[in-house]
Design a protein that fits this description.
single chain; mainly alpha; 71 residues
Length: 71
């Protein structure tokens, strides 16, 4: 997943996402990521945005339920 400044033209973010998908689909990249114990996932900018939104909501619930704080 990559991020770009707000207001970046859609054509730029889609081009960046396509380049990342091409790299993430290469055998060498996939092997290296697997060695690190991870799984490469590359999708569209909309999928990335939805993932971040879901993760933020999940962790907001965890914080609210546990009362965890940063001191």
């Amino acid at each position: 997943m990559a991020a770009a400044p707000a207001g970046t033209p859609k054509s730029i973010t889609e081009s960046l996402a396509a380049a990342i998908r091409r790299i993430a689909d290469t055998p060498d990249f996939r092997a290296r990521i697997a060695e690190l114990g991870a799984e490469p996932v590359a999708g569209t900018p909309a999928e990335a945005k939805a993932f971040v939104k879901e993760e933020a909501a999940k962790w907001q619930r965890v914080i609210a339920q546990t009362g965890v704080r940063v001191d």
